[in-house]
Amino acid sequence: MDSSFDSFGLARPILRAIESRGYTTPTRIQVDSIPLILNGKDVLGCAQTGTGKTAAFALPAIQQLLAKEDDASHSLRVLVLAPTRELAVQINECFEAYSRHTNVRQTVIHGGVGAMPQIQRLRKGMDIVVATPGRLLDLLAQGHVHLDDVQLLVVDEADMMLDMGFIDDVSKIVNSANNRKQTLLFSATLPEEILSVADQWLNTPKTVNVVPDAIPIHLIKQSVIYVENINKDLLLIQYLFATPRARTLIFVRTKKDAERVAKNINLVNLDALPLHGNKSQGRRRKAIDAFKSNEPPILVATDVAARGLDFENISHVINYSLPEYPEFYIHRVGRTGRAGAKGEAISLCASHERYHLQQIEALAGITLRVKQWNFDDFGNFPQLERAHQKRKKTRKPLEANGDSAPLDREEPEQSGWVKGKKKKKKKKKKRRSRVITMDDINSKAAHTKAAGKFAPKKRSLD
Ligand code: AMP
């Protein structure tokens, strides 16, 4: 990659901003996309988060606005659509950073917060708007925003829009911005449906595909432990205690799992927060910011809630459950090992997940190293056992096969925007939890009681 940011012909204020972000060399998607976008081409980009794709579209977008800087109207000329509020906020932050030495104005629009401040900012005139589709459609219908002047439209994370059922909303918006000169569509995967909308929305697009090299999967130490669901909680806690870690991201399949697993981790006095779509916008933002500043250093997230979010310095990714779509494994694991760092990813695979494991190995072209786990080598956690027993009592005929969280019992999280579903007020009983130390973990005495209940019958888990 012999390009430099200078070679793109970007304006000085943009180059200054790039410099102060500490970027020295453009990433591959930037090398491939920036010249095309500056040339006015439509682009279909197959790239995921971590590749530098936001700058790949944001830098030329700002450049194009600067080229017409005499236009002081600040009418909305660049519109970016993102599937979740967090992503929209993150993209807007990038625009803010890259345009900080210019007069370009930008704002972010998303649901879950009052519309008034957003309307007031729009009234001032914004050159760039980053929006989630739902709130933007509302404001369009109310006449608070007009898309007539939009020149450049970016649809980011298009496959996620599809997964979350937003494609029709996005379609309405795309059709409303019908004076646009240029459309860019970025997607982590390119299923049929995305190719079909790309065909409708883009005009003879250039395709940019950086997926194969985007994630340095070979740099990430990956292994799998075969363990049934009923033993996953104990194994996870033992693993967390036994492994020197920095920031750790745990992926679960459902919102309920995210809550339960984070709770279990807190029970043993490690610090973790759940992140999923049933959390209010404020709480999700708080969890993300807290995790970014390492307090707590453990986040338990669903794919939908964590997708696209840019977390740096993740030392460990733990797949508490394997994803149904093998691409998600790549996304998850790619959160560690960024920028050449050596990350570690561990997957807990129950027998019903073996099929997913095969799919992952086929897609990634790797065979995961099988790690043996002997529960007796690690500590025991009576708090965990108590929580498990309590859950068991409150459940009806628990899983014939003994699984504590069987597949298909709860749907995996589909959308970060599920509204108004929560009603139950759980009676909370505060329980004092004992501090677990490494001494506990190593002590023979601690192994005995609960290990018998949690540990699998067979010691060899393979
Ligand atoms: P993105 O894929 O847009 O979410 O970007 C992932 C991360 O890469 C973000 O933290 C960006 O700030 C960072 N980044 C983007 N472009 C570059 C670059 N050329 N050099 C170094 N880091 C970059």
How would you characterize the overall build of this protein?
By secondary structure, the chain is α/β, with parallel strands linked by helices. It has two domains: 204 residues, P-loop containing nucleotide triphosphate hydrolases (Rossmann fold, 3-Layer(aba) Sandwich), CATH 3.40.50.300; 174 residues, Rossmann fold, CATH 3.40.50. The protein has 19 helices and 14 strands. The strands form two sheets. Strands 3-4-2-5-6-1-7 form a seven-stranded parallel β-sheet, with helices on both faces. Helix 2 packs parallel to helix 3, helix 3 packs across helix 4 and helix 6 crosses helix 8. The site of adenosine monophosphate has 13 residues, from helix 3.
Quick tags:
alpha/beta; 2 domains; Rossmann fold; 462 residues; 7-stranded parallel β-sheet; binds adenosine monophosphate; 41% helix; elongated; 14 strands
Q: How many whole angstroms does the radius of gyration measure?
A: 24 Å
Helix fraction, binned, reads 40-55%
Lateral strand order in the biggest sheet: 3-4-2-5-6-1-7
CATH H-level superfamily of the largest domain: P-loop containing nucleotide triphosphate hydrolases
CATH topology of the largest domain: Rossmann fold
Q: Determine and state the CATH class of the largest domain.
A: Alpha Beta
Average pLDDT confidence is 82
| CATH architecture identity of the largest domain | 3-Layer(aba) Sandwich
